[in-house]
Amino acid sequence: MNWRGALTIYKAEMARTGRTLMQSILAPVISTSLYFVVFGAAIGSRMESIDGVGYGAFIVPGLVMMMILMQSVSNAAIGIYFPKFNGTVYELLSAPISALEIVVGFVGAAATKSLILGALVMVTASFFVPMEIQHPLAMIAFLVMTSVTFSLFGFIIGIWADNFEQLNIVPMLIVTPLTFLGGSFYSISVLPPFWQTVTLFNPVVYLISGFRWSFYGVSDVDIGISLAAIAGFFAFCLFIVWRMFKTGYRLKT
Amino acid sequence: MTHETPTGAGQPAVLSINGVSKTYAGGFTALKSVDLDIRKGEIFALLGPNGAGKTTLIGIVCGLVTASSGSVNVFGHDINGDFRLTRARIGLVPQEMSIDMFTKVKDAVAYSRGLFGKPADPAYVEQVLRDLSLWDKRDEQMRALSGGMKRRVMIAKALSHDPDILFLDEPTAGVDVELRQGMWQVIEKLRQRGKTIILTTHYIQEAEEMADRVGVIRQGEIVLVEETATLMAKLGRKQLTLQLAEPLSAVPEALAVEGLTLSEHGDALHFDYDTRADRTGITTLLANLNAAGVSVRDLETRQSSLEEIFVDLVGGAS
Fold first, then answer.
1. Chain A: which residues have CB within 8 Å of chain B?
2. CA distances (Å), B38 to each of A186, B5, B29, B32, B186, in order?
3. If you ran DSSP here, which 8-state letter would residue B11 be given?
4. How many helices (DSSP H) and strands (DSSP E) are in chain B?
5. Which end of chain B has the smaller Cβ count within 10 Å, N or C?
6. What ipTM was assigned to the predicted interfaces of this complex?
7. Around Cβ B1, how many Cβ atoms within 10 Å?
């Protein structure tokens, strides 16, 4: 195994984050914090509590998850798209490094960045709203699984994308709506029965619900189903990536 | 086990391409059953017009392009089955300027070395950068470098893992004469360090100047592989054409000499001779013509250049 190669990609990706600290770290932390200030501290104080949890605290897991989903997708997508765009992907393809090692490097770096952002956002949130974490291990597990899975999803988009428009279209038109409609700001139990059923087709619901359970012990769907959903999506993404490398899809000619 | 296949000129083949074909998804056939052996330590120039298949061939050996059929062995190892072993011994400098503009020179080289799984070796990297006159620029970002320097950084990156075989895809395309000669010096230095170098080029002069052997590729087929020295010897040959006042039905016996032929219509004699020989035979031929009573109306000499050989060979490409 060429783990040094994977580590080299990982370090280079993390160094890229370091070079763009404002854009990579500060911007998402500040924008997510604004949600806490507006929806949590300002509007939240006038809202009813949900499942016995104050509104400000209720939205924290959803917001953290929303940011992690979007950052994981966009970071991993840009990570592999950029070498394709500037031509340096030839180095990856001509080096004695396997698909798995390449994926570990890029996806590992994107997931690490998401986890750092998640931690920063939670620390920031604790200044605005009262928070508790009932199941810290489950919370960490959800964070790690979501970061890795959606980084893998972003990696797929980065390989698939032929231009910057395509690179942005999936995060903008699919991930963002699914996240907003996935229960970040509300419990799906407040929806009419028909829309509750529709919502259950949104995979993000299971992530946010499970993640919220790790905080407050309350969830919209069973925690086991949440874990199964994220594991299933992880397996699906892994299969797609494997096929992409196997066939050389948009990497080799 | 590593083994090296012996080939012509007593040199082992470090790279063997056997029956390699490539047809792209759109149906375009870029390579047609290409066979080629590259000898250890040589500089091999692959000559051909645009679209002849040079870059596709390099891409297949290096892992960028998947061959439709055929096999490639590097030091006796298959490039697919033993890709880690084969790629570790190959360095590639692609034709396109492919660099991350925001990376520093030394970081870019270190990245390439790391990708190949090699531990950091500052002394080796320093030597590579010094050889390429880049040491003073090691802390510069790529975007601050001139075009010629960027190209040299790409060579440094390709050499970062100390490969045995180096592919240079059109190393002097789009660079001025001075830079081109600088690049030739770099390549010569690499040869002296024992690297096997395969370069593609449009420039005949480049092949003549540097290559030990020349291969000509046309429409996906290798149509000629020759020692550069042999080609140059052909270059030393000239042809004298004598337009006859009266057509002949055959070359008179008194004139018969090696290299003398009669044209199809019998109205001209062609005499091939070596300009570098002590005696070209022209004086004797002219004296014999006079003695035989053959009148000459006109005469001309012409020399076939490598350029002409190349154009003849690739003539059907466009």
1. 2-5, 7-9, 11-12, 15, 19, 82, 86-88, 90-98, 248, 252-253
2. 68, 10, 23, 18, 20
3. P
4. 10, 15
5. N
6. 0.88
7. 4
Cβ proximity of A155 and A108 under 8 Å = no
Q: Identify the residue with better confidence: B308 or B109.
A: B109
CA dist A116 and A103 (Å) reads: 19
Please write the tens of the pLDDT for every residue from B16-46.
999 999 999 889 999 999 999 999 999 999 9
**CATH architecture for segment(s) B237-303:** 2-Layer Sandwich (3.30)
**CB-nearest partner of B116 from A86, A96, A248:** A96
Tell which of A82, A93, A94, A251 to mutate to test the B interface (max B CBs under 10 Å): A94
pLDDT, tens only, B265-290? 899 999 988 777 778 888 889 988 88
What does the alpha-carbon distance between residue B140 and residue B134 come to, in Å, rounded to a whole number?
10
Residue among B86, B97, B115 minimizing CB distance to A91 = B115
Q: Domain extents for chain B?
A: 5-232, 237-303
State the architecture of B5-232 in CATH terms: 3-Layer(aba) Sandwich (3.40)
Question: Coil, helix or strand for A208?
Answer: helix
Q: How does pLDDT run across B137-155, given as a tens digit for each residue?
A: 999 999 999 888 898 899 9
- CB A97 to CB B115 under 8 A? yes
- Whether the per-residue pLDDT at B318 is higher than 50: the answer is no
Residue B35: in which H helix or E strand, if any? Answer: strand B29-39
Contact B285, B188 (CB under 8 A): no
Contact criterion met (CB < 8 Å) for A88 and B98? yes
Determine the residue of chain A that is closest to B92 in CA distance.
A94
Residue A175 per-residue DSSP state: I
Q: Where are the beta strands (DSSP E) in B228-274?
A: 237-244, 260-262, 268-274
Secondary structure letter of residue B95 according to DSSP: S
Phi-psi region of B53 (alpha: psi -120 to 50; beta: other; left: phi over 0): left
Please name the residue that has the structure tokens 């009813």.
A48
Whole-angstrom distance, CA of residue A96 vs CA of residue B112: 11
Within 8 A of B167 by CB-CB distance, chain A residues are none
For residue B167, list its beta bridge partners.
B92, B198
Boundaries of every domain in chain A: 3-247
